[in-house]
Write a structure and sequence with these properties.
461 residues, mainly alpha, 18 helices, globular
């Protein structure tokens, strides 16, 4: 049974856990002092914000679609790599972007074109998609080796063509009536192709312009591009891989699990196995210690005085982003028309479809939104944790545990689970040692599931 809840009754298990954590924090304050307690709490909330950005997408997707996306952490990792590349190596990103835009144009225009029947076979679609990836990689290599602009443009258009063929292989409902496409529908693919050609033609000036930007603007651009890239990747995954498997949940699990390994190897092939460190934007990087938030805003200090102990200002930024996203998503789900459609679709998707709402588009939108949240988490985590290929698996595990602790499909439970995990990790690092801190998530999940199998705020099946 699918469910997605915002409101929840008081759970005595959740109350008991909160009281227990308050007691532990009180003991730490008594034995180690308030400055140490403040540092532990803020460090825990920093991790909790990152865990929540991953877990919230998992919760939204499972609550509406009954899909456990084990590739969610990989999207978090890809967001981190894209953000790092745009911030520090924008020329490399602009080299491959035209191929991606061309491929997306082909994917979007495919349903509008009448293609001969032999291209609609799924085998042809798979081969075409593989060829699209090969074309992209070869074109990037040719560009780096000094190939002509004409050859690169040919690669862009070839990628669009192969993407077109791949898109036709997707399943279309048998009762769907073909309608002539309006000029507005064609505008999107044409804009994508035009943008691909423009970036290809102006690649060097654009790269110089991005490099010349202030680091704060480059970071803001990395946030936007990384988040949008995660959303587009999520939409593509749902449309091409998840949608044909809605009636086969076991196949969904196996497919997303395999996709996680594939995406990990793709990242290793493109960026290499070694990790990277990403500099903080100038807004959080000046070597000084601010006494107040106003002092930080004026001097852009890297540390701020929090009850007698310095704390990195960038970590406070992560906490603020996590809180803002939690509030925005809750308001969208509770107050907007889209949120009403999502909650209605959770209860009875067939009735929503009968009312004339395209439930498949809603599914794609929710999956893309969940992936975008994960990618956003990856971008803001990069200056804090660095960028490395195993970060996707680590945050996938923590996000999944947060969802299970809070209750599958419970949005408030997901937030509570992320906070519990973040504080437990911070307490473990400062009190019990790194080994116990790493194991704390699994220990907490085991204890909670033994007492309350549905999670802290989850509903009983």
């Amino acid at each position: 049974m699918k469910y997605l809840t915002l409101r929840t009754r008081v759970s005595w298990g959740a109350v008991a856990l909160v009281l227990l954590m308050i007691a532990v924090l009180a003991v730490i304050a008594q034995t180690r002092g308030v400055p140490t307690l403040t540092n532990i709490v803020l460090s825990g909330l920093t991790l909790a914000a990152l865990y929540f950005l991953v877990a919230s997408g998992l919760s939204l997707i499972f609550g509406l679609m009954d899909v456990l996306n084990f590739a969610h952490g990989s999207i978090f990792m890809i967001g981190a790599y894209i953000g790092y590349t745009l911030f520090d190596r924008s020329g490399v990103l602009l080299t491959g972007l035209p191929l991606l835009l061309g491929l997306l144009a082909g994917l979007f225009v495919a349903p509008l074109v009448k293609i001969p029947g032999f291209l609609k076979k799924r085998g042809i679609a798979v081969v075409s998609l593989v060829l699209a990836v090969v074309v992209a990689l070869l074109s990037v290599r040719e560009w780096e080796s000094g190939a002509s602009l004409a050859r690169l443009l040919g690669g862009v258009l070839s990628g669009a063509f192969f993407g077109l063929s791949a898109a036709v292989g997707g399943e279309r409902p048998r009762n769907q009536v073909s309608r002539p496409a309006s000029a507005g529908v064609w505008a999107g693919p044409l804009i994508l192709l035009g943008l691909a050609l423009f970036i290809t033609w102006q690649q060097a000036p654009l790269s110089q312009a991005i490099i010349g930007l202030d680091s704060n603007w480059r970071f803001a651009l990395a946030l936007v591009i990384g988040t949008l890239s995660g959303g587009l990747l999520g939409a593509l995954i749902e449309w091409s891989l998840i949608r044909p498997l809605y009636a086969r949940p076991i196949f969904q699990v196996l497919m997303t699990l395999g996709l996680a390994f594939v995406l990990n190897e793709v990242v290793r092939a493109l960026w290499g196995p070694a990790g990277f460190s990403m500099a903080r934007p100038e807004l959080f990087d000046q070597n000084c210690r601010a006494a107040t938030l106003l002092d930080w805003a004026v001097n852009h200090c890297s540390r701020i005085d929090m009850l007698g102990r310095p704390f990195p200002t960038y970590r406070l930024f992560i906490i603020v982003v996590g809180l803002a996203i939690a509030l925005i998503v809750a308001l969208v789900l509770q107050r907007s028309r889209l949120g009403m459609i999502i909650r209605a679709g959770v209860q009875d998707a067939e009735m929503v479809q009968a009312l004339g709402i395209n439930v498949r588009q809603v599914f794609t939108l929710v999956f893309a939104a969940g992936a975008a949240l994960a990618a956003l988490g990856g971008v803001i985590a990069a200056p804090f944790l660095g960028v490395y290929t195993d970060m996707g698996l680590e945050f996938q595990l923590q996000g999944f545990i947060a969802v299970v602790i809070g209750g599958m499909g419970s949005y408030p439970g997901t937030a509570l689970g992320a906070v519990v995990l973040g504080l437990a990790r911070a307490i473990g690092d400062n009190v019990a040692g790194a080994t116990i801190a790493r194991a704390s998530a699994v220990l907490i999940m085991t204890l909670i599931l033994l007492v309350k199998p549905s999670g802290l705020l989850g509903k009983k099946e």
